[in-house]
Amino acid sequence: MASAAKITLVTGANGMVGSRIVARLQDSGAAVVGVGRGPRRAAGNFEYVDLDLRVPEKLAELIGSLRPSGVIHAAAMTDVDACEKDPLEAWLLNVRAVEAAALACRGLSARLTALSTDYVFDGEKGDYAEDDAPNPRGVYARTKRAGEEAALLLAPDVALCRVAVIYSGYQILRRTFASSAAESLRKGQPVKAFLDQVVTPTLADNAAEMVIGVHRSGAQGIFHCAGASAVTRVEFCRALARKLGADEALVEPVRLADLRLPAPRPLRSSLRTDKVRRLLGDGVPLPLDLALDRFLEEGRA
Question: Taking the CB of residue 83, how many other CB atoms lie within 10 A of it?
Answer without folding.
Answer: 25
